[in-house]
Amino acid sequence: QQQVKQSPQSLIVQKGGISIINCAYENTAFDYFPWYQQFPGKGPALLIAIRPDVSEKKEGRFTISFNKSAKQFSLHIMDSQPGDSATYFCAASKAGNQFYFGTGTSLTVIP
Amino acid sequence: DGGITQSPKYLFRKEGQNVTLSCEQNLNHDAMYWYRQDPGQGLRLIYYSQIVNDFQKGDIAEGYSVSREKKESFPLTVTSAQKNPTAFYLCASSPRDRRTEAFFGQGTRLTVV
User: Are B64 and B85 in contact (CB under 8 A)?
Assistant: First the structure.
């Protein structure tokens, strides 16, 4: 059973546009929600993360929106650039133990 | 430079052979993890270890084995019992005080022919 569901599977956005990736989870015990960015042939790298006591976190062009009641969280990439083209994974964990990852979103930003 | 080193980057093996993937970290992290990545399936946990000489099975441990004799090292053996071993394997680690943050290596692509 997929603990974290991610959508869309792929996304194409024009340069300068907003990229939005959504994730949903079931286990209310999860207390940490990171997003990872992965380039082809490389390992994922932590992009931004949020805990359920806040509804939004912003770091530069990247923002996480968190809706605890709906058990959903999303990644917004503002002013998307071709260099943002990568695969993005959401994840959830409980007390820092096992991480559960979404299935990934392949983002392509076209010039 | 601190980090996680996986070797080799590419590995080819014949069907029926065991193969061991290396993962070394110099970040002084207590916890280490092995994930398998397949297209369209995200990252699935194979094994994890939170302390030396202790490790736990993840969601897809069948056909794999690990050891944690040193804090810095967490090798993964893909045995002949693993029915579909061709995949991209990722090792990660996290610190005890902020166990919530996982750092990944660059991965090993294993191809079994």
Answer: no
Is the minimum CB–CB distance between A44 and chain B shorter than 8 Å? yes
Predicted local confidence at residue B85, as pLDDT: 93
B14 phi and psi, to 5 degrees? -85, 150
Kindly tell me the sign of the dihedral angle through the C-alpha atoms of A60, A61, A62, A63: positive
The greatest distance separating any two alpha carbons of chain A, rounded to the nearest whole angstrom, comes to 41
The pLDDT of residue B101: 79
- Is the Cβ pair A43, B107 closer than 8 Å? yes
In angstroms, what separates the C-alpha of B90 from chain A's closest C-alpha?
Answer: 7
Tens digit of each residue's pLDDT (9 = 90 or more) over B39-60? 877 899 999 999 999 999 998 9
What amino acid occupies position B102? A
Which of B42, B101, B106 minimises the CB distance to A46? B101
Distance, CA of A83 to CA of B58 (rounded, Å): 34
